[in-house]
Amino acid sequence: MSATVIQVIQLVLNGGVLLAGAAVWGLYVKTLKANIEGANQHVSFWKDKAEALEQRSPEVIERILSKRLKTATKELERLEDEWDQTTKAQEDLKQEVAVLNRTLKTTRGFREMLAMERPSPEDPDYEEFLEYSKTQEDEQVDIEVVYIGSVGVDSGQLMITDPAYVDSEWQDEPYEDDRVYRDKHNGSLVTWGEDFIRYDEALEPYGKTPNELIESGRLVQLPPPPKPDTFNYSYNGACQATQSEGYGELTYRLGHTGAAVVFGSGWGDGYYPVFGEKHDGRIMRVYVNTGAAPIPESD
Hints:
alpha+beta, four-stranded mixed β-sheet, 50% helix
């Protein structure tokens, strides 16, 4: 066989080997690519698993809860702000209603007071009253009711007097209180001013307030001694008069009445409105509304 033929045969064999190697390489590359894709899918699967697990970690849960708590807190603050505004509006409305109620009571009381001055048809002065009323209407008197101020009460009573009498007629005498109570259990006596001075403070050795002891029936007030026929122009005289009938006249030093008139206030201590009825600018009547709830003291 000639050398040329042998070289051709070797070339053919080498080409076949190259073709077979190329086929094997292609198959290897294809398999490798498939393995890479499978590995990518595997990695993606475990990445999703890892992210899912991470979502369940305490840090992530804390972060989510913190965000939700912040949102809920803002919403709560908004609702509380709306509630505060609503509550303030309700309180303002309650105060307005209270003022209107006091004004209504004042108006009713003033009207009733004026009605007391109107005589009945059987009264001998009835015709004269009608004539006077007609005169008032004909003359068109300008009548106005005005608020003239408030008066403070700390002793549960008020006094009407001429200020000029305070220096010349006022008598400085000690207050005499006859409020004495008997203990139903042991018969002992408890006296205001000696054993206690306040009804809302604990009384020894009872450990309860006089108000509580009186309400329970443990302390019973004894009948007071007879009141005098006249009351001096003094604090003691004023107290004796109001404790007697709820009102009374105080006398001058010479013994005749007219120094002052005293009366108990309807709701005790507090500040009470005073109104004046003006006829053509002159005050003709004064009305102290002690039947209304005491108004609060201004700051």
